Amino acid sequence: MVDLSKYPVEDLSSRESKKELERLTKEIEHHDRLYHGEDDPEISDAAYDALRLRLQAIEERFPDLVTAASPTQKVGVAPQGKFAKVRHARPMLSLDNAFTDTDVQDFTRRIRRFLNWNTDTDGAIALTAEPKIDGLSLALRYEKGELVIAATRGDGTEGENVTANARTICDVPSTLKGEGWPDILEVRGEVYISRSDFLRLNEAQEASGGKVFANPRNAAAGSLRQLDVEITKQRPLRFFAYAWGEESGLNAQTQMDVIKLFQKWGFSTNPLMKKCDGWEAAVEHYHQIEQARPELDYDIDGVVYKVDRLDLQERLGMVARAPRWAIAHKFPAEKAFTILKAIDIQVGRTGALTPVAKLEPVTVGGVVVSNATLHNRDEIKRLDVRIGDTVVIQRAGDVIPQVVEVVKDKRPADTSAFEFPKACPECGSHVVAEGDDVVVRCSGGLSCPAQASERLAHFVSRDAFDIEGLGEKQVKELFRRGWVKTPADIFELESINRNAADPIEKWEGWGDLSVRNLFAAIEERRTVSLHRFLFALGVRHMGQQTAKLLARHYGSFAVFYTAMKEAANGDMLARGELTSIDGIGDKVADSIINFFAEDHNLSTLDALEAALRIEDAEVVSSDSAVSGKTVVFTGKLEKMGRSEAKSSAEGLGAKVSGSVSGKTDILVAGPGAGSKLKKATELGITVMTEDEWLELIGE
Ligand SMILES: NC(=O)c1ccc[n+]([C@@H]2O[C@H](COP(=O)([O-])OP(=O)(O)OC[C@H]3O[C@@H](n4cnc5c(N)ncnc54)[C@H](O)[C@@H]3O)[C@@H](O)[C@H]2O)c1
Ligand SMILES: [Zn+2]
């Protein structure tokens, strides 16, 4: 029924298969005990289902190896002794699974064959379709309308007596309502916790230091199976009735009839249950429920189809652990298993190294997936994922698929822990991790092709080289065409163009741009101020402000360059000088020094230095009249622009601020000054005109 070819077992001999069956049985039993017995599974349902499917595939190939002890012949786990045992008058079964529409079609085919049913003459077999609630099943025995025993499924034959706990559930009537119920009636259904109640419960658990549950199913199971009924009473358990066990006479012909009786007698039943004529209609309803799934306030993991006519159910009976007249159509696994073939390291535009899992293609939730993200270096370490491993892939909505789990016991013998590269796969530069940041980055900057076009865009941006006619769009195209690979290439553009077979003038979208003007604009920028130049390099953490501080401190490019090379060679004095600058911390200093530690960065700098004239900056003299003072400019300035005034003040070691406060030393007020002037006067701050200011700074 399920496509078991996905679980290759052909290569196993009969002897190996026997061993493998034993191993799988042990493992499944272990997980059953944790899941059903302790409500605390340690693997995902998808991982568990895969173990079962592999076991099934082997048993299908070697039917002789099937024993009564096989998980395919059993339901759940026997009660552990925590509660008194209850023997079920009629066994509580599990359900067979269908994963595709075709599986469902096969299911109805098998039924028709079994019943010798002729669709042409007898019509389609009516099925009910209803959500498969992800909770745990509970049997409620009523005698003369009174609830006498409530039991869990246990191993299907014997369950646990949880009567006191079940009485606390609001949907469980202690006395049947209405009339017409048989003297003996066992109502079965699913205990669950709604999603919203689950969130509230977990919040409360967390606040009180109690156990936080992994999902609503575990919370429901853990809450029902409490020895202290006072605890169960506080848990928001709910119950949907959908089946029955022993009964001394139900006046009903169909599944639907019984559900209507249940409603009359005081039970909650699922509103999405529907009678469908034939499997196509049932599957259609399945897809509707699937669409409604995100909006439902309770978890469901599929749709259950049941033959509606009770006389047909009777004839069909059961096989091993499940009725022949019902099947659970599971929603496509949003998780899947596959083999990790390789780990690729991708370098992003900011230099971040992202590991990508290269997978044996697999369908996850109906989509073929061959790549999944591994997020970062730490995640690889956390998962200890290795090449050759069997991994669980998860896909949620449109989100990039991710590797969420490693199936450790399927690991081949000769694997080794994955070594995260120490050099960038694109350019060979060192990779660096900053502090406790989980992201590892390539230090290559401009020399790294993965980062280059982004860096070039920064290089020509407004606060950097600011070349007219050469914006982000243009420089990226030049990069794409291979004309400009490093910033220094920009200054060769004219000669490159002159010798080109396909000059820029002919490029689409560039025609209306005067190429002449472009080259003129580039020429004009051959002379550049030191701080603009430093900022343009795009060294991480070296913003405009830092670039200015550096320019003012070191004065010339040559001095700065020598000092940084010394620092990169381990000269602590050189490093100390850098960090002594007010406003430059360790993080910034490390980033700058790392930049100078890379040879390719030095060659980029050398090429630029040869092409440019980098103007010296005015070194801040600590003896200037305004050094260390906080200055505010207000009103209209007539001799200089606002930014010029600001930068000359800063050049003299003053701090320029936008607002007046107790920390302000000087207010330079031009015509039209208003509230700032008023405030400064009130605070007794020195106020001067623009001329007085210029005189003070000696201009
Ligand atoms: N993660 C783990 O370690 C682990 C271990 C064991 C089992 N599991 C999971 O538990 C499930 C297997 O357990 P199972 O044997 O109970 O089978 P099942 O949950 O696949 O199907 C049978 C159960 O479905 C429930 N059900 C919900 N709505 C129903 C409805 N409308 N009509 C009829 N039945 C309905 C009943 O409780 C019934 O017993 C799988 O999903 C499996 O992945 C996980
Ligand atoms: Zn790189």
From TrEMBL:
SUPFAM superfamilies, A to Z: BRCT domain (SSF52113), DNA ligase/mRNA capping enzyme, catalytic domain (SSF56091), Nucleic acid-binding proteins (SSF50249), RuvA domain 2-like (SSF47781)
Keywords in alphabetical order: DNA damage, DNA repair, DNA replication, Ligase, Magnesium, Manganese, Metal-binding, NAD, Zinc
Keyword Magnesium: yes
Binding site for NAD(+): D45, A46, A47, Y48, D49, S94, L95, E130, R153, E190, K306, K330
Domain BRCT: 621-694
SMART domains: BRCT (SM00292), HhH1 (SM00278), LIGANc (SM00532)
Domain of life: Bacteria
Record field: catalytic activity: NAD(+) + (deoxyribonucleotide)n-3'-hydroxyl + 5'-phospho-(deoxyribonucleotide)m = (deoxyribonucleotide)n+m + AMP + beta-nicotinamide D-nucleotide
Residues forming the catalytic site: K132 (n6-amp-lysine intermediate)
Cofactor names: Mg(2+); Mn(2+)
E.C. number: 6.5.1.2
GO CC, alphabetical: cytosol
Gene Ontology terms for molecular function: DNA binding; DNA ligase (NAD+) activity; metal ion binding
InterPro entries assigned: BRCT_dom, BRCT_dom_sf, DisA/LigA_HHH, DNA_ligase, DNA_ligase_AS, DNA_ligase_CS, DNAligase_adenylation, DNAligase_N
GO biological process: DNA repair; DNA replication
Residues reported to bind Zn(2+): C424, C427, C448
Xref: NCBIfam families: dnlj, PRK07956.1
Family named by the database record: Belongs to the NAD-dependent DNA ligase family. LigA subfamily.
Biological role stated in the UniProt entry: DNA ligase that catalyzes the formation of phosphodiester linkages between 5'-phosphoryl and 3'-hydroxyl groups in double-stranded DNA using NAD as a coenzyme and as the energy source for the reaction. It is essential for DNA replication and repair of damaged DNA.
Protein name, entry field: DNA ligase
Name of the gene: ligA
